[in-house]
Fold:
Amino acid sequence: MRVVLWAVVLGLGFAFGAVTAGAAPLRIEIDEGIIEPLPYAVPGFVAENAAAQDYARDIAQVIAGDLNGSGLFRKIAENAYLSTVTNFDSPVQYADWKAINAQALITGAVSVGSNGRLTVKFRLFDVFAGAPLGEGLQFGGSTSSWRRVAHKVADEVYRRITGEGGYFDSRVVFVAESGPKNARTKRLAVMDQDGANVQDLTDASSLVIAPRFSPAGDRVLYTSYETGFPRIYLLDIATGRRRALDDQPGTMTFAPRFSPDGRGVVFSLSDGGNTDLFTLDLQSGRRQRLTSAPSIETAPSFAPDGSRIVFESDRSGTQQLYVMPAGGGEPRRISFGQGRYGTPVWSPRGDLIAFTKQNGGRFHIGVMRTDGSEERLLTASFLDEGPTWSPNGRVIMFTRESAGATGAPALYSVDITGRNLRKVPYAGAASDPSWSPLLP
Structure:
């Protein structure tokens, strides 16, 4: 067996069992639209010592939760399995997995060292080709990072079968809400993309809205009303330290978003009743005006290459989307359908812009090409708003609020084909999600 050293994020892992895939590798072509999820099997991982028993079970469950949640995969119920996996190195009984129509098989093993270090090995098999799909991998980390290890495995399975990067090892910052509809308190919180590991970032002493992750996932921009007026703050997640940005008396600042390199911020500034777009260099504090119009310009979002900005404006008499050069310049309107458009967000792939649309008393989450063509509405409800992209640009998370006096916001996700609409698991009311990049 050839052993290859390979560094992974949670420590040093290594690839092993350098066996290549068979002649007809298993593959999901996402662009063709997935109607029937791919059936797969993931037996509980083998616990290689007593300390690993719970982790072995839980890691396999998180992997299955990630893959099932994508809408591209369907785990076959374990009571249908004809084989058991009791040794990581045992030969795969392909006939048993074919008999239950498992097209992919994920096996793994877990151990916990005397130093408390967790080691997870996994393999992926193309059952009908009767061969491994890529090399086995090993991840290492602390036991407290076991969920991240599971997400890493799920991301690797997703990548090997779809040919695209995954999105499972990522986090979402959002506004956690509590209390009655007319007197809610709001605080910033962050959680894994699957709703686990919720952690408060601020208390509920002042209203906060619109958090935005930095490109490195280490900082968050948000708007707070703690002074009575909207003001942008920059929060370091690791230290909890924060500072107000562009704190100019007599002005209001809001709707911030990082530049792709994380060194700057684009935001709205309201002064004397007029609202325009500005950028701010986070190191020098230098502010640059991008627009100068009597209309309201807000919700800016950079293209991933930093060359352009999409934003919403009512300069044409109704709320529409515009694109302009990142340094300012003549905006070009890109939305021309019926209704109002807002909260545009450029896809991390650079090919689409997600938006909120209000038309005929309904709210929608939609996507369009960056020139405004090929508009597609993905959702419809009493109130859908505030889209944010998964790191691979395949899934959109947003806020859905139910009607009535007891209505409350919740987080939902949908893929860019409009399929797999699902509620993000979170026990309370939640709004304004912002998806992080894949964690380092």
User: Anything to note?
Assistant: Residues 1-24 have pLDDT under 50 and may be disordered.
